[in-house]
Amino acid sequence: MAANDPLSIGILVIMYFGDVVFAVSGALTAARYRMDVLGFVLIGTITGIGGGTIRDLLLGRPVWWTQDPTELILCVAAALITFFVSPGENNRRRGMVWADALGLAAFAVVGCHIALAFGAPFVVAVFMGMITATGGGLLRDVITNTQPMILCGQLYATTALVGSLTYATLAYLAVPGLMAETAAFLAAFSLRAAAIVFDIRMGPPGEFLRIGASKDSTSE
Amino acid sequence: MAANDPLSIGILVIMYFGDVVFAVSGALTAARYRMDVLGFVLIGTITGIGGGTIRDLLLGRPVWWTQDPTELILCVAAALITFFVSPGENNRRRGMVWADALGLAAFAVVGCHIALAFGAPFVVAVFMGMITATGGGLLRDVITNTQPMILCGQLYATTALVGSLTYATLAYLAVPGLMAETAAFLAAFSLRAAAIVFDIRMGPPGEFLRIGASKDSTSE
Amino acid sequence: MAANDPLSIGILVIMYFGDVVFAVSGALTAARYRMDVLGFVLIGTITGIGGGTIRDLLLGRPVWWTQDPTELILCVAAALITFFVSPGENNRRRGMVWADALGLAAFAVVGCHIALAFGAPFVVAVFMGMITATGGGLLRDVITNTQPMILCGQLYATTALVGSLTYATLAYLAVPGLMAETAAFLAAFSLRAAAIVFDIRMGPPGEFLRIGASKDSTSE
């Protein structure tokens, strides 16, 4: 793979899709705390572009949206629409979970690709893919004073890690860009899908993995 | 406006004033949690220079106080004095709210100016003005484990947004520096003043704006 | 002191030791919240390298572990081992406190040295030493939604400050590197040791310092 190749159109589309999905997810969190319109915009935007921002700061890259604010505006618009449309939450819940899964998989691939293209070592690039996919949600949870979802036993950050690791491995093996992107995306998404459908969870020491709900499910 | 013009003396004075005011506000938060002297200094300093620090990190500018620690020292001193003087909180409460409003308006203008001078796009510069004005308080609330004030319905971040947007617009229209600064500062400050006097709040979806207190005011 | 001298072998060893100790400390926090294996790894890693990361971001240095991931891998390994070994917490508690004290002292010296070598002013370098030593623990507490330990009256951040200040002063006085490092390390460590043994605490306004436990010790 030539790491400097631009992202394929397919991934770009899914990336914008991911921005919108995460921004809406942040805005719905703002709704739960009965925040005002600016709260919707801030939390939505931070959730949408926060992960990539942390990645760029750590890598020493220019933070991309300070130079081309397209995605910033996209997130603001998505959060505003969420505020004024004010969806019936239960109704949209199911759809959100699946859209979020698509965004998570896309961001893991995108983040890992950007880190590799920037010359980051293998291990670091894998880490950056995971941070890109989960950092926005982490900031959202920290700011709204919530126990971070990525740390609560959902098979969530793990799926981002799998997508990022798959992509970095395929890129290392010189698999062509589009094929590597697709394979890594599908790996992450299908694992997350399995986790949603079969309620796969990871547990504390002594309970590495669990499938199916148990009574003391304290996580979000 | 030539964006590279240095800030006018008036704004510089108000900027230092803003540092002190926000540092004292952070130190008073430390007092509420009965922290020790280092807690006063850390929370005070983070509140005073945190917003500008986030702005500089995002823009890729050198973080200014790591090269010229004047404002760092100013914040430390203000927090130390707050610890040892230990003001009767109720007594100073009213004064703090108004001083904070001055700092908020000043930081919004300063932050937007710095971002424009650094070459940031219009939308990004407006965002940076808001971040400069509210980022320190956000960090303060996150670290002390408090629901962030800027997200709790006070007409607070909104006034920073108005100041920043006004300044960027006037600068775009080539209004001379001093005039643009003054107009934007007054726009932000008078809106905040109106919000304090008339208790204007913004609400969750379905309750965009509210004037005068209601019973379920859960915010700070 | 020639600020560009590499760190002495002794300090390097203690620095790696500090990474491991802080990573284990973060992993034990993850254990308290019954997190899964990825939670152990994330919180452990953030605790281990978070302080140095904040320092590098603020100084505008490249974040070191994005270029040489040795310490990143070290922290991941330490957190993984903690997950699978799952130590009896009470048993290890005493050892952890002392190991943590060693890491705190080492990181304060290392952080101050790196900042001075990068050309930071005296005051800023002292601040950076304290941030390097305490920033990882601060991020750990913010992410796990805990009242930050460094702000709860333990003589903790203060000892980092003492170590950092001692090192910067000795470096300013041109004391040779090894001697300055050792003296500053011992100053910080012995103060922390005294705080542990004699239960020295700092209090809110009106109670600057206290030795020996009192009834209302609410801190961790």
TrEMBL record, chains A, B, C:
Compartment(s) where it occurs, according to its Swiss-Prot or TrEMBL record: Cell membrane
Gene Ontology cellular component list: plasma membrane
Keyword Ribosomal protein included in the entry's annotation: no
Entry membrane topology: Multi-pass membrane protein
Keyword Cell membrane recorded: yes
Pfam families for the chain: Gly_transporter (PF03458)
This protein's UniProt keywords: Cell membrane, Membrane, Transmembrane, Transmembrane helix
InterPro entries per the UniProt record, alphabetical: Gly_transporter
Chief location of this protein within or outside the cell: membrane
Residue spans crossing the bilayer: 6-30, 37-58, 64-85, 97-116, 122-143, 155-175
Chain ranges of the Glycine transporter domain: 13-85, 98-170
Family: Belongs to the UPF0126 family.
Protein name per its UniProtKB record: Trimeric intracellular cation channel family protein
